[in-house]
Structures are given as structure tokens and as C-alpha cells.
Amino acid sequence: MAVWEQLTQYMEQEGFKRFQSFEGVGTAYVREDRRGLYVVFLLWEPMASGIRQEDYLRWRRETEGELYHLYQRVPVWLTLLCAADTIAYRDWCGDGSVWLVENWTGRVIRYENQTRSFLGWERSLEEALSKERTQESKPISALPFGRARYPVVTITLVVINSIIFCMLELMPQELSARLFSAGVMYWPAILEEGQYYRMCTSMFLHFDTSHLTNNMMILFLIGGRLEKVVGKARFAAIYFLSGMIADLASMGYTMWQNRLVVSAGASGAVFGIVGSLAWIVIANKGRVEGMSGGWMVLFVVLSLYGGFVNQGTDNAAHVGGFLAGVLLTVLLYQMKNVWKRQ
């Protein structure tokens, strides 16, 4: 369960009710009892964009005014700010009413000058977050990457690609005939004969064992990590859309060069997930599965370089897939947080 969902669940368990939301990044929760009026403001930092303190202070003033009008009481206030880079918000914590929460680990951060208590949450909140994550976990040796959820879509794609390759290898025709009939990329067939299905089928076809192995290894290692970050549906969308955009880039490049070539392979889609994870890792300063931004940049550079130095590599598809993965992640993964908060 995501940290944001855990926090909203904790609010409900503590008897707080949703009061109002602000611009997709903040939600105020209220609880009134005989001891007083309590307000918790949950803030979630949109990836790579940050939250301005002046906006937060304006939302807080507006909320306090509305609450006093409704309840005729001065509220006791706590703000929980979820962010990847909590250090960037340390200046917010001067009065003790703002606690920081790492949105990848659920760790609650309270600095030494923050002596203020709030309903005894100093320990119970972090215990609730850590308990939820402990219940989800299993022994590291039993699972890939030490997490409790298998990358189902990633494994399924690897299996499907492998099965299709084996089936084609058993066919008696020549390799070129087998691949062409199965649906490789060939722009005259797409534009002149309307065989648009080739933009999808070509992602599941490979020329030889090394071609298949290289793509599937990267897909399993990188795709498995990405799937656990963005979820199954969004991972599948990034994979297939990146693959099709990569095919468009390849087709446009070969048409521009006036060349008649066939292309196949999952590398366009694979570079899409590489670009997606690279953007997430860099945007969140390496807080994804322990991966650093420097490691991710090096991996991307070496992968693209390997394609340019090897003849017969469809570099247009690689670059197009990579850029598509970045763009799609900005749209799909960042919007996931906005939809969740709304």
C-alpha cells in the first residue's frame, strides 16, 4: 500500500474526516471532540515540481478561517508533508507543526527543535506506517528484488516473447519468410497495404537467440523494478505505447533515408521502460529500489552507445522508445499521484 493511502487510512482510524482539498496536493482532515478541534493537513509533493511554502500558508489561513466560522474554536494544527527530498522542506519545520514523511519509505521525520506533541502520534504514526509495510513484506530470498509483489506483467512479457521465438524456430520456412509472415516492421506493408498490426506484432519477434536474450534480460531486470513503482496497468501502457512510438520513429527514419528494411524486436519498448525508470530515479534522487541517478545515467549511455557502435541496430527505435518512456512517465506516473489525491 502506498504511503499516501496508509496516511489517509490512519486519518480514518483516528476519527478524522475529510474537510477539503487544495489544488490536488493537499487535503485537510478535521476531528472535534470535548478536548478541542484538531486539523491534519496532508500534503503530497508532485514529482519534480515541489510545493511552494507561500501556497501552503495561504491554504492554511483559508482553512483556519473556515473552521473558526463553522466551529467557533481555534484548531490545533498538524501538517504531514510527504516528499521524496525531505531535506528541501526542513525550513518548514521551525514551529513544530510540520512533520515530514518520506514518500518511498514512510519514515516520519521530526527534528530536534520539534518538541510539540499531537494526540500522542509521535510514535504511533510511524509505527502504523512501518507495520503496514512489514505485513506486506516476505523473506527477501523468496522474492525478486526483496519485495512482496512479483512483477507479473514483466514476467508475462518475457514468457510470451520466449514462446513466440521458440514457435517460430520450429517452423520449416526460411527465417526471413517466417518473420515477415509473423509481422515484422516493414513500412511499405504498413502504409501501402494497411497492415498496421505490424507496429505491435514486431515487438514480439526476434532475429536470433542473442537478440532475444539481451532484450529479455533488460526487460526483466529494469521492467520488474519499474512495474512495482508505477503499477501493472501503467507499466503495460508505458511498455506498449513506447514500443509503438519507437516503431513510428524507426519507420519515419527509414522512409527519410529512402531505405527498404525490416525491423523487429522488443528493444524499442524496452528502451521505453529504461527511459521511464531513469526519469523516476533521477527525479526522486535515487530513491527507487536503491538505484542511484548516476548508475541509471551510466546504464542509459552505455545502452545507447552499444547500439550506435553495432551495425544493424535500429537506433531510431531505441532513441524514440527512450524518449517516449520519459514522456509517458511524466504523464502517467505523475498523474497517478494527482488522481490518487483527488
Would you kindly provide a written description of the structure presented here, covering whatever features stand out?
- The protein is of the alpha/beta class and about 350 residues long.
- It has two domains: about 5-135, Trna Endonuclease, Chain: A, domain 1 (3-Layer(aba) Sandwich); about 145-340, Up-down Bundle (Rhomboid-like fold), CATH 1.20.1540.10.
- It has helices spanning about 5-15, 55-70, 120-135, 150-170, 175-180, 185-195, 200, 210-230, 230-255, 265-285, 295-310, 315-340, and strands at about 15-20, 25-35, 35-45, 75-85, 100, 110.
- A six-stranded mixed β-sheet has the order 1-2-3-4-5-6, sandwiched between helices.
- Strand 1 and strand 2 (about 25-35) form a beta hairpin.
- Helix 8 packs parallel to helix 10 and helix 10 packs across helix 12 (about 315-340).
- The longest helix has 27 residues, at about 315-340.
- The radius of gyration is 25 Å and the shape is elongated.
- Mean pLDDT is about 80; it is low at about 135-150 and about 335-340.
N→C terminal distance: 17 Å
Q: What integer is the average pLDDT? A: 80
How much beta, percentage-wise?
5-15%
Known CATH architecture of the largest domain: Up-down Bundle
Shape by Cα distribution: elongated
Could you say which structural class the secondary elements and strand pairing correspond to?
Answer: alpha/beta
> Gyration radius, to the nearest Å?
25 Å
What profile does the largest beta sheet have? Answer: 6 strands, mixed
Unreliable parts: 134-148, 336-342
Helix content: 55-70%
Total number of helices: 12
- Give the domain tally: 2
From N to C, what is the helix and strand string?
A: HEEEHEEEHHHHHHHHHH
How many individual β-strands? Answer: 6
**CATH superfamily caption of the largest domain:** Rhomboid-like
Widest sheet, order of strands? 1-2-3-4-5-6
> Any idea of the CATH class of the largest domain?
Mainly Alpha
The CATH topology of the largest domain turns out to be: Rhomboid-like fold
